[in-house]
Amino acid sequence: MFDSNKIREIESSTVQRYNDRLSKLGFVPQALGWGSREHQIIRFDSICRFVNFSGKTVLDIGCGFSDFYKFLLDVGENVAEYTGIDINENFINECKQKYKDNHYEVRNIMLKPYEGYAADIGVIIGVLNFKFKDADNFEFSKEFIKKSFNACKEALVVNLLSSYLVPNYPKEDMVYYHSPEELFEFAQELTDNVSIIHDFPPIPQKEFNLILRR
């Protein structure tokens, strides 16, 4: 269990890291740590192959610039309502300007979890990839996923870097590689309806989606 001081410490360093990137690169996928928009599309498509967002209320946890919402619009997935939350106020302000019909909020779900369902489907895309220096990533991920799943009426999709590494791509010290097997075992504590999707190409590292359904 992470205490509030540690969570705020993680939040502060995370916000600073992304603000530094934002000041250098602007509102582009690379500022969020993604390689390119093309890589994002592969990632987003891997989610939509197994989850239907049309007509659903969606909670994007760690929404960044709402790139996933734009993808849903582009592919004709007409959601009933979209809510984006992020710990970075600069990201939320940008989203509010771009997509005025959506709901956005500066919110840390670890410090301010939802009481009851916030949406039909939740997504966590890339939020849990950064490796902490003095905190247990896996324990943090479990707590983060549990709080997020509690806010979802139907399903939660979590996109993560896989511990199954690509041979020709060097392992990076700054990122955390999750074990699909360990997360599958943990997810069984929350629901017996769990899927692991590990079949899409590296972008450039191997990723997988963990899907928890009610």
Largest sheet entry? 7 strands, mixed
Gap between N and C termini: 24 Å
What count of helical segments does DSSP give?
6
Count of β-strands: 7
Order of strands in the sheet with most strands: 3-2-1-4-5-7-6
Instruction: Encode the helix/strand succession as letters.
Output: HHEHEHEEHEHEE
- Shape field: globular
Percent helix, as a range, is 25-40%
Low-confidence stretches: none
Question: How large is the radius of gyration?
Answer: 16 Å
Helix/strand-derived class?
alpha/beta
**Mean pLDDT across residues:** 95
Portion in beta strands: 15-25%
Could you characterize the architecture of this molecule?
The structure is a single chain. By secondary structure, this protein is of the alpha/beta class. 35% of the residues lie in helices and 21% in strands. The chain has six helices and seven strands. The protein has helices at 4-25, 37-48, 67-74, 89-98, 137-150, 180-187, and strands at residues 57-61, 81-86, 103-106, 119-125, 152-161, 193-197, 207-213. The protein has a seven-stranded mixed β-sheet, with helices on both faces.
Give the arrangement of secondary structure elements.
Blueprint lengths: L3 H22 L11 H12 L8 E5 L5 H8 L6 E6 L2 H10 L4 E4 L12 E7 L11 H14 L1 E10 L18 H8 L5 E5 L9 E7 L1
Parallel strand pairs: 1-2, 1-4, 2-3, 4-5
Antiparallel strand pairs: 5-7, 6-7
